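Let us practice reading a record.
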Amino acid sequence: MASHLGNSWDSLLKAQFDSDYFDTLRNFLNEEYSTRVIYPPKRDILSAFAHTPFENVKVVIIGQDPYIGEGQANGMCFSVGEGVKCPPSLVNIYKALEYDMGIPPTDNGDLRGWAKQGVLLLNAVLTVRAGQSGSHAGKGWERFTDYVIRIINDSDTPTVFMLWGGYAKAKGKLVTNPKHLVLTSVHPSPLSFYQGFLECRHFSRANGFLIDNGRTPVDWSKRALSD
């Protein structure tokens, strides 16, 4: 797994990439990728960081681990590659976006347009076995992504954290800086969507916070790079 991102994350994460625990994680991943079907493709494991440099981060959306279906995971939480059918959770995110801001849903689940605007689409665990949710939990990714959240928390640049579901909310304990806004809701999965996610209005609330703090709001209608 290449750990050179070509942007500001390289220096910020170098100590993690060079650490003993990450060497252990890297060896585990090499074995997994050589013997099993693992998502996302190796080249995409760190794509959330490649698309959203640290200094651009204005919103952090935290997922659990990648999609487990063939061709879905692309290294950014809730996002899929262009031309891939939107999974149910992403369909529901689009419904909530329409409810909140009147932006109609699209069949395109590629969220690189959000990432390029400063939305860090961060899974807590960055890899997974095909068909086995949580299969790479406890292997070191949580330590890595906790470190990422702490770096962002330690910055005084006002940032929005969107925590959807119990797993993401648990990461909220790492966000202690009062300069930031933490928004929580149930998960957008079909099991919990109608228990409050539809009406959470996180997208407009995030933009209001960004504007109030002198930052450019996110154009949530620009989901794909082609939008």
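A brief commentary: The chain has a mean pLDDT of 95.
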